[in-house]
Amino acid sequence: MPQRVTVAKVADIPDGGSVVVNVLKRDVAVFNVNGSFFAVDDFCPHMGASLSGGFVEDGCVTCPWHFWRFRLSDGAWADNPKQKIGAYPIHVVGDDVQLELPDLPVV
């Protein structure tokens, strides 16, 4: 069963807002879009900009530096869906926003 980690309280991320959390040594941007929460890597692969500061519209976050757009639902680049950033399932449990951790290999 996948593990979850609480990354914020619902009240910490207002509608239209975002926060950056560090999970497993990775910065993840968590967005609140009309009461639905999404989590993607906080890193544009083009030039490394923080996506948490980007503009969200039509289910995509737009990189604030060079306007690359990534779908919040699956991390796919809107103009070339073969390229993706990490996207993570989010669950709201009571007042907690929880990120589902990716399965890690057993070592």
Core attributes:
three-stranded antiparallel sheet; 12 strands; 50% strand; iron-sulfur; single chain; four-stranded antiparallel sheet; mainly beta; 107 residues; Rieske Iron-sulfur Protein
Give start-end ranges of low-pLDDT stretches.
none
Radius of gyration: 13 Å
The CATH homologous superfamily is named Rieske [2Fe-2S] iron-sulphur domain
- The helix-and-strand class reads mainly beta
Total strands: the figure is 12
Spatial strand sequence of the major β-sheet: 2-3-4-10
Which architecture name does CATH use? 3-layer Sandwich
Number of helices: 0
Strand residues, percent: over 45%
- Total tally of structural domains: 1
For the largest beta-sheet, the strand count, sense and barrel status come to: 4 strands, antiparallel
CATH class assignment: Mainly Beta
Mean pLDDT: 93
Alpha-carbon distance between the two ends: 18 Å
Percent helix, as a range, is: under 10%
CATH topology: Rieske Iron-sulfur Protein
Order of helices and strands: EEEEEEEEEEEE
Task: Note down, in words, how this protein is organized.
Residues 5-99 form the Rieske domain. Pfam families: Rieske. GO terms for molecular function: 2 iron, 2 sulfur cluster binding; metal ion binding. The protein is mostly beta strands. The chain has a single domain, classed as Rieske [2Fe-2S] iron-sulphur domain (Rieske Iron-sulfur Protein), CATH 2.102.10.10. The protein has no helices and twelve strands. The strands form four sheets. A four-stranded antiparallel beta sheet has the order 2-3-4-10, with no helix packed on it. Strands 1-12-11 form a three-stranded antiparallel beta sheet, with no helix packed on it. Strands 5-6-7 form a three-stranded antiparallel beta sheet, with no helix packed on it. A hairpin with a 2-residue loop joins strand 5 and strand 6. The radius of gyration is 13 Å and the shape is globular. The model has no long low-confidence stretch (mean pLDDT 93).
